[in-house]
Amino acid sequence: MTQARASAPRRRRAPAPHPVSVPRFELTSIRWLDAILRWRPLQFTLIAATLGFFVLAILTSLVGTPVGNRNFGIIFVWIVWWALVISLLVPLAGRLWCAVCPIPAPGEWLQRRAFITPRPLRTLGKRWPNRLKNIWIQNLAFLGVAVFSAIILTRPAVTGWVLLAFVLLAIGLSLLYERRIFCRYVCPVGGFIGLYSMIAPLELRVKDPEVCRRHKTKECYLGSENGFGCPWLVFPGSLKRNAYCGLCTECLKTCSMNNVALNLRPPGMDLLVPKERGLDEAYKAFIMSTCALLYSAILLGPWGKLKDAANMEDWRAWVIYAIGFVAMNLAIVPGLFYVATWLSRRWARLSHAPTRRLFIDFAYALVPLGLMAWIAFSLSFVLVNISYALPVLSDPFGWGWNLLGTRDFPWTPYFPARIPYLQVPILIIGLVFGLYIAWRIANEHASAPEQALRGVVPIAVFLLAATLGFLGLYLG
User: Fold this and answer.
1) Cβ(369)–Cβ(429) under 8 Å?
2) Got the DSSP string for 195-213?
3) Measuring CA to CA, which residue among 253, 464, 442 is closest to residue 361?
4) Which residues pair with 204 in a beta bridge?
5) What's the pTM value of the predicted model, to 2 decimals?
6) What kind and span of H or E run contains 25?
């Protein structure tokens, strides 16, 4: 992947940290699980199931009731799906959602001219530009959705049009370009899932990279009669992080050397792979953390005017709000972090490491705290609103149906008084995990533990201040 990289250091270089052996348990050594993952119709079956819910979400959003808490699209996309992805799938299984996501499916089926059986791909043969082989489009797309999020999350018709636009864009890109260009470089959801998937304890890796180097045919990337080439344009033999592996298991099916495995490993190890870090991912960490803080302030804070501005009650107030929102994400928070990085470099005397390099590397310490902040924020509205799911299952369009007999199930907020007691330990876990990642990154650049300690102090202050900001909003 082409990303901006720091220039090579010109002065003294700190010794490289000794490689640490990471314990792994190979899940594909379990025969029945390996057989399921190699079953050719597996992904189609799962996608077909999620596609049904997705189509229903679009239809109910566009032609159903405009009352958000009675509309299937609003409740199941922004309450049920969001809670499932951000609180369970991403932290535990990485990009597992990407393996069953229905958004790219229609375009991919057109591209493959098949649902299950491998066939040669058919596109217009265009190649994605090298200068766009990064996640900057995903960053800007997520930020664009985030600016309008108060409207998207509460107005069913807007949700429906946004979801439909994603599908149409994915189809168009599948007909123009090879494989899953939409997922890899464009999808705003895929951007944050990829970032936070690096924390997950689940990984797909090759068993022995040397086998891949010696093997010439590379079916895992090019495809074979057993499966398609990697839809994500990733060569498994050089895969070191979860960020761009969609867990589709095509390489598991195509590898003739039986050299691909699904493993369990300690969480967060991908954040410690220095060679793969880039400015685009660093900014994704800033955007996700800042948006979590701003959403908490808008939706949970006492500032009614801020909430009205986000809801476009007055377009002039919304313009000011949007400018401030974007500035916080792209300039103010990254700027404060840059100051912390500069102080880190100065206090620890890391003159051999450019400030820009440290800025990129230390940004990955925000990833654990950002994920935990999103989980804590999600609890504040998911537990309060999840009971709406039962009525809309019986009456998805809000037309008075009672298909399952649950239409009149009352709104029941779950544990509202205990939510802060859940949010506090979640944020503390994120803070501690982030401090650990910052310490490990500092050791990559330092020549002694004392130097690493001095270097990590400003980053620790930044992480602590962010955690206190979240706690102030959640505890009132």
Assistant:
1) no
2) HHHTT-SEEEEES-HHHHH
3) 442
4) 262
5) 0.91
6) strand 25-26
